[in-house]
């Protein structure tokens, strides 16, 4: 079987791994869930073009994210919603006050975008428990181990791998953060809302397209330069060193996805 591109999603109590066709979620309590996944673009390839595919992919990513978070216990969901509500309640009025008192200078906007990003991470960690970052590290180590051809049943081999990965969503967020920090709104209030919406959509599409191309060449000097900020955020903010139990959970989820892919490939050959 050729190498399958896999990614993941960390929770406060487990790890979800995903390939193009399948996903698998393994929790600390030993419970396991898995299923198939498809993209609208697979059935409508004529729309797989620049900009449009990025918007569609983003919508599908958000939809899949909501679907997986509903698999968390109800109490955990309420806790996450509570802290994300606090995040919105603080950042939204603060944004209005800053623009009223200080204006829309690029320096102010840059500082505010960074503050919002860090505040979102804080709210996320409070809502899901701080262990989400160590599970995030376990997810990356397992994927790196797979891509380096290491034994996925050997926790020590997986632990020797980096907890930083070029396809991590943190890298994408950092690119978007930089583009949004360059935002200079029109001074006219009526145009401001329209321009803000357009610029946000444009920045998101450009970020996704740039990220899509960069991860194809993870070892190139250009990729390393552009993703340098995101890699630093992974190292110092969004991942922590996992324990062997967390690594084993991430590995189990990854191996389940690979097994599903292998079965699918075997069916296609038969």
Please, could you describe this protein's structure?
This protein has 270 residues and is α+β, with helices and mostly antiparallel strands. The protein has one domain (7-262). The chain is built from 11 helices and 4 strands; from the N terminus they run ββββααααααααααα. It has a 4-stranded antiparallel sheet with strand order 1-2-3-4. α3 (74-101) packs antiparallel against α4, α7 runs antiparallel to α8 and α7 packs across α10. The model has no long low-confidence stretch (mean pLDDT 84).
Topology of helices and strands:
Elements (H helix, E strand, L loop, with lengths): L6 E4 L3 E5 L3 E6 L4 E5 L3 H4 L8 H18 L4 H28 L4 H23 L2 H17 L7 H5 L9 H13 L7 H26 L6 H6 L1 H11 L5 H26 L1
Antiparallel strand pairs: 1-2, 2-3, 3-4
Helix pairs in contact: 2-8, 3-4, 4-7, 5-11, 7-8, 7-10
Brief descriptors of the model:
270 residues, alpha+beta, four-stranded antiparallel beta sheet, 4 strands, 66% helix, 7% strand
């Amino acid at each position: 079987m050729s190498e399958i591109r896999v990614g993941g999603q960390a929770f406060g109590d487990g790890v979800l791994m995903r390939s193009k066709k399948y996903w698998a979620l393994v929790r600390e309590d030993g419970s396991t869930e898995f299923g198939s996944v498809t993209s609208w673009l697979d059935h409508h390839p004529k729309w797989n073009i620049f900009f449009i595919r990025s918007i569609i992919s983003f919508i599908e990513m958000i939809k899949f994210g909501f679907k997986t978070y509903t698999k968390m216990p109800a109490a955990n969901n309420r806790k996450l919603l509570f802290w994300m509500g606090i995040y919105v309640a603080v950042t939204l009025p603060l944004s209005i006050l800053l623009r009223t008192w200080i204006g829309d200078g690029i320096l102010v906007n840059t500082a505010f975008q960074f503050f919002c990003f860090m505040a979102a991470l804080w709210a996320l960690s409070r809502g899901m428990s701080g262990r989400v970052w160590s599970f995030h590290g376990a997810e990356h180590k397992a994927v790196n181990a797979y891509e380096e051809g290491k034994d996925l049943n050997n926790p020590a081999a997986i632990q020797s791998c980096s907890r930083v990965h070029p396809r991590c969503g943190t890298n994408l967020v950092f690119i978007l953060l930089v583009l949004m920090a360059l935002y200079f709104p029109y001074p006219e209030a009526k145009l401001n809302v329209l321009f803000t919406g357009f610029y946000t959509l444009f920045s998101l599409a450009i970020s996704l397209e740039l990220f899509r191309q960069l991860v194809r060449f993870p070892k190139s000097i250009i990729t390393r330069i552009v993703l340098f900020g995101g890699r630093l955020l992974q190292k110092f903010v969004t991942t922590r060193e996992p324990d062997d139990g967390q690594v084993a959970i991430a590995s189990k989820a990854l191996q389940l996805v690979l097994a599903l892919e292998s079965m699918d490939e075997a069916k296609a050959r038969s």
